[in-house]
Design goal:
The chain is mainly α. The chain is built from 19 helices and no strands. It is globular and about 60 Å long.
Length: 337
């Protein structure tokens, strides 16, 4: 709707631009009114979105709220490549100026690239945003980017690098007294510590996260943080009770499988791929291995790595995987492949 308002403010708006602006408004209304509409139909609207955004860029009306909102909208329909292209075009329009907005755009671009599974390029964009933010002395922006960069490094399997970035981010948030940001980073830190096998430290991070959220009455994310803490405590007890290496490996495999499901549910497909792969490497149980292949296939499909997706789906079916992961909820995915 902001895009429509901005488009209508342009002094010399052509009939074509007006038509595209109305098209975009219809797109927003349709997205709000129903969640059952075919995603393929929604993706057809991207050209209209880009047209409006392009005219706004040419007119020098690069409102960060509009860009952030548009990025969220495209994220909802899987239009990550479109979002990445939009951010890159906006950066080119800015030229040598607009450093603060460039930092925001590089951050948004990195997030979209992560959704596409391009972790390496996402890290490069986060680092560029971090460089600009530091040059500007924007400490709050620096903390935010460090948290995102840590998440990308975690997806790449670089846990030491991820932990270092999360610690930097946490230090800045505490220095600024930003308790909401502190809680967010503590949750990220807890996940990385858990992946690194540092269970007591992970529990401590989650406990501090829940404590801050309670103190500040931050409802968003509190349920998730409590759930993470409860699961980790339970998993820690079960791990301590393991008597053999085989039992420990089986428990670790289930942990990575469950973590993969959680990451997938949050739209973190590279992170899901990493955990499902680790679960597959650890598991010797046929059913769980079939489940891992099925979910690896779906995760790869989401980032459009079709060859890998086909291979894993074939392996899942060959393993006799017959639950709804393959035959019901992903029937359309298989058809598209």
């Amino acid at each position: 709707l902001l895009a429509l308002e901005e488009a209508q403010k342009l002094e010399r708006i052509t009939e074509a631009r007006d038509r595209h602006a109305e098209h975009f408004a219809e797109f927003v209304r349709a997205r709000s009114e129903t969640t059952q509409r075919n995603v393929a139909e929604l993706l057809e609207e991207e050209e209209a979105i880009l047209d409006v955004a392009g005219h706004l860029a040419e007119a020098g009306r690069l409102d960060p709220r509009f860009l952030s909102g548009l990025n969220v909208l495209l994220d909802q329909i899987g239009g990550w490549a479109t979002a990445t292209g939009l951010m890159q075009s906006a950066i080119e329009v800015l030229g040598q100026g607009g450093d603060w907005l460039k930092a925001v755009l590089y951050l948004q671009m990195g997030k979209s690239l992560l959704r596409q599974g391009d972790v390496r390029t996402a890290i490069a964009r986060f680092e560029e945003s971090l460089r600009i933010g530091r040059d500007l002395g924007d400490r709050r922006g620096e903390a935010m980017v460090l948290n995102s960069l840590g998440g990308a490094l975690r997806d790449r399997g670089d846990l030491s690098g991820a932990l270092a970035r999360f610690e930097e981010s946490l230090e800045i948030e505490r220095e600024l007294g930003n308790r909401r940001g502190e809680a967010m980073v503590l949750n990220s830190l807890g996940g990385a510590l858990r992946d690194a096998g540092k269970v007591p430290e992970a529990i401590e991070a989650y406990e501090k996260c829940v404590e801050v959220q309670r103190e500040q009455q931050i409802d968003v994310g509190l349920k998730t943080a409590r759930s993470n803490l409860k699961k980790l405590r339970k998993w820690s007890r079960e791990l301590a009770a393991c008597r053999t290496t085989a039992e420990r490996k089986a428990l670790m495999a289930q942990y990575h499988f469950d973590s993969g499901k959680s990451r997938f549910g949050n739209g973190d497909y590279p992170g899901a791929l990493l955990h499902y792969t680790q679960a597959l490497e650890l598991s010797v149980e046929p059913f769980l291995r079939g489940q891992c292949h099925a979910r690896l296939g779906l995760s790869a499909f989401r980032i459009r790595d079709l060859e890998v997706a086909r291979d894993h789906f074939a392996r899942a079916l060959a393993a006799g995987e017959s639950d709804s992961v393959i035959h019901a909820s992903n029937a359309r995915t298989l058809h598209e492949l």
